[in-house]
Amino acid sequence: MTAHNVPDKRFLDAQIALLLETPDDDLDELLVAAGFEPPELAMRGENAIAAARAVANAKDAERGRFEMRRDHGYAPGNYSAQCSVCGKHHTADKRAASCVECADAAIAKGAA
Ligand SMILES: [Zn+2]
Which residues in the chain belong to E strands, given as ranges? Predict the structure, then answer.
């Protein structure tokens, strides 16, 4: 959510407080009256949460992989260098000692 579509945070907080304090049956009644299907809304909310969790997990996995490769001598970058493990020319961060393949091989060896 961006700042420009939140007209008044206090008003939003008041609405949220009202929703949280409303008994489930009353809330469902209001939602039906407003043309919503409560179970469908709940499912959409759960789907949105699951999607957000999946994105967060993917980011964690990506961060973890980046750190593991860095620990094994590789970081992405635009410098052309020679891998100190296999001797092949590769493109990486200028401080990288290893190519991505050798870093991944070292990670796999460590995990086995
Ligand atoms: Zn290599």
Answer: 79-82, 89-92
